[in-house]
Amino acid sequence: MFDAVKETEKIITFIRDYYEKNHLKGAVLGISGGKDSGVVAGLMCKALGSENVVGITLPCHSKEADAADAKLVAEKFGFELLNIDLTDTYDTFKAQIGKLGDFTEEETKNSDINIKPRLRMASVYYMAALLSATKGGTYIVPGTSNACELYVGYFTKGGDSVYDIAPIYGLTVEEVIQVGEVIGVPEKVLYRTPDDGISGLSDEDKLGVRYSDIAKVINGEDVSEDAEKKIEELHRKAAHKFHTPVYHK
Predict the structure, then answer these.
(1) Are 46 and 78 in contact (CB under 8 A)?
(2) Of 2, 3, 65, 150, whose CB count within 10 A is highest?
(3) Full-prediction pTM beyond 0.85?
């Protein structure tokens, strides 16, 4: 039986121990306005103090509601919230790609979706290095992926797969919500239908499976044959994302 209060305490202790062991100071993370980044931001504030946590909104042809929800999280936990608008950066990049050939929207669709989290990753790490140089201590980047997303490979290689510490790595979506309830993540954020903010689809619509079924597969519980087949196929196809780089020994 999952005990959200005990798990929250364990995660906070894990973060504090890691920071103490490695002589670290603070954390920088992207705040999307969704529950995962909201829960991770809250956990980092509980562990380190809100004065040592910096959130960044990274709009890139994004919905205005995302920034508003990110602000709710920052106000709740009291951390500084910065904004780096990547829209012009993305457009400049796309203009350069356009010079390489006359590609259709369908041909560039997957590349367009994945360049956005890669631009965001570069921006967050830039700020982590900048704050490390100006705040008198090392800032690192927490990841915001949960166990369900990781199991089916729902992340961008070289984008949101890159981070230094993973506080909710072992939690299913429902468990993330329960931890969020314990630490007081704003309800509007915590219960928002999860989406990538890029494709215009909810996560479950995009994946074609429910997070609750992914959690059951992870925990060895029964799901429909069709759901299990889809989930295991996603898991198999994403295997390459977990073994990078591959070295020739």
Answers:
(1) no
(2) 150
(3) yes
